[in-house]
Amino acid sequence: MVFPYKIGFIGVGNLAQAMIKTLLEKKVVAPNSIFASNRSPGKLQKAVDTWGIQAQTTNEQVVDASDIVILAVKPQDVSLAVDPIARAFRDKQLVISLAAGISLRTLGKKLPECRIVRAIPNIPSVIQKGVIGCVASVKDTALEAVVADIFSPMGMVIPVSDEDELEALMVSCSSGTGFVYELMMYFQDWIAEHGFEEHLARKMVVETFLGAALLASQSPDQSLEDLQNRVASKKGVTAAGLDSMREWEIERALRYAFEKAALRNQELAKQSE
Ligand SMILES: NC(=O)c1ccc[n+]([C@@H]2O[C@H](COP(=O)([O-])OP(=O)(O)OC[C@H]3O[C@@H](n4cnc5c(N)ncnc54)[C@H](OP(=O)(O)O)[C@@H]3O)[C@@H](O)[C@H]2O)c1
């Protein structure tokens, strides 16, 4: 095991479970170094049965038992989970919040003595293909290394310099995954309308997106535009389609989607102050 710290999870929902599974599979920590609590006991028991982690009856016990506390509850549950036990946190204890829309400022007011990191993984993190943005309340390279140890088994960790950047990363990579699925559904519908079985249409879309992404990933020296030009010869079939995409201003529609998502994030952050 490479990691010398005890990690505590307050909340063992979808994301915490994916993290626990990955941390154990990659042998970053041993099950006896993971402590967890959860509002409903069933989920916690299942995590204990599956991974042999250490269940705690209260959130306060998780804080006591752990060097690093990961807040893995929904944004609307953060206050309920943290406020009643704020005094249990130790001076300089590292707290990592996964909650979207809860700012460092808000968390810092709740836990003024702690070092706080916000981390935003996207959903492909569950298959170790995530993009994970993180920002810390204090600039500290040792702290960054600890955060990288925890999250790099789930994908690419990107430390950002402030919460504006974190928001941009969240909107493009986390919400962005949802936007990509929306585009994939448009492809799938069109293919299915042209006579292909639904399951085959789905496969064709997935392979097209996967192939495009893998080719881009394996051609780091080529810009996305260069790769596109390899498909789109002048006055050819693809170029005709691209002309139409540009005429209909798909880029503008997507930019609006990013901006709307960012505005919603700011609204949620305000509500939680
Ligand atoms: N899933 C993602 O892809 C993703 C990506 C980026 C960020 N996030 C963030 O990660 C956090 C967790 O998301 P999730 O999808 O894992 O949510 P989730 O599946 O709903 O898990 C949240 C867990 O927290 C538990 N909980 C709620 N209040 C609690 C309390 N006071 N004390 C202890 N446990 C409590 C819930 O218990 P119950 O069993 O009673 O419901 C639930 O098991 C959220 O803040 C979300 O914004 C998620």
Give a description of the structure:
The model has no long low-confidence stretch (mean pLDDT 95). The protein contains eleven helices and eight strands. Strands 3-2-1-4-5-6-7-8 form an eight-stranded mixed β-sheet, with helices on both faces. It has 273 residues and is of the alpha/beta class. The relative contact order is 0.09. The protein has helices at 14-25, 41-51, 59-65, 78-82, 104-110, 141-151, 163-193, 198-217, 224-231, 237-247, 250-271; strands spanning 7-10, 34-37, 54-55, 68-71, 94-97, 115-121, 130-136, 155-159. The protein folds into two domains: 7-159, NAD(P)-binding Rossmann-like Domain (Rossmann fold, 3-Layer(aba) Sandwich); 170-271, Orthogonal Bundle (ProC C-terminal domain-like fold), CATH 1.10.3730. The structure holds NADP nicotinamide-adenine-dinucleotide phosphate. NADP nicotinamide-adenine-dinucleotide phosphate (NAP) binds next to α1, α4 and β6.
